[in-house]
Amino acid sequence: MQLLHYSFTTVCSLPPEYCEFGPQIEKCKAWLKAHHPDLYENLYTQTLEDQMANTSLEDNQTADAEDKKKAREAAKIERELEKKRASKVIITRIARNKRKCVTSVYGLQNFDIDLKKAAKTFANKFACGSSVVKNNQGNDEIVVQGDVSDDLEEFIPATWKNVPEDNIELVEDKKKK
């Protein structure tokens, strides 16, 4: 079979002739069959005699092992995507004394954002102090001086496109007397 390089990519972001080596072969086959049926016929249909001639017991065992490995990789990718969809960025306004307050941002690390760079970006944007600190549970969060919670709610999805607006939650916390 002659391999040609096509100018489009499939679901797994690989060229069509390499999809069989990717983790999402079934999704790629379905996409290719729907969008490019002639190419699908070319790549994925063989006569029964050709398949029987190329098959042996060892090939079946290695193919089964490879299929299991690809299925595990695809499941791992799905779990990571589901975790990102379920995670939230929590912006908390914490009152200090009288009119002073700070804003805490928690959960950006779930979206693969470097917290130190994000803190520096917040400090530059809002002209205030910003740092990465550990909270009571031992997790990292960003503390920004001042009440910038409303601005942060708009700034975060505009700056980092992989953080959906639906996953940002505002919380107001008052200091206990």
Give a quick set of tags describing it.
cytoplasm; alpha+beta; Translation machinery-associated protein 22; 5-stranded mixed sheet; single chain; 44% helix; 177 residues; ribosomal protein; SUI1_dom_sf; Translation Initiation Factor Eif1
Overall average residue pLDDT: 79
Low-confidence blocks of residues: none
Question: Beta-sheet strand percentage?
Answer: 15-25%
CATH topology of the largest domain: Translation Initiation Factor Eif1
Coarse shape: elongated
* CATH architecture annotation of the largest domain: 2-Layer Sandwich
Structural class: alpha+beta
| CATH class division of the largest domain | Alpha Beta
CATH superfamily heading of the largest domain: SUI1-like domain
State the strand order across the main sheet: 3-4-2-1-5
Largest sheet: 5 strands, mixed
**Number of β-strand runs:** 5
User: What is the tally of helical segments?
Assistant: 6
In sequence order, what are the helices and strands, one letter per element?
HHHHEEHEEHE
Number of domains: 2
The CA-CA distance between the termini, in Å, is 77 Å
Helix content: 40-55%
Gyration radius over CA: 25 Å
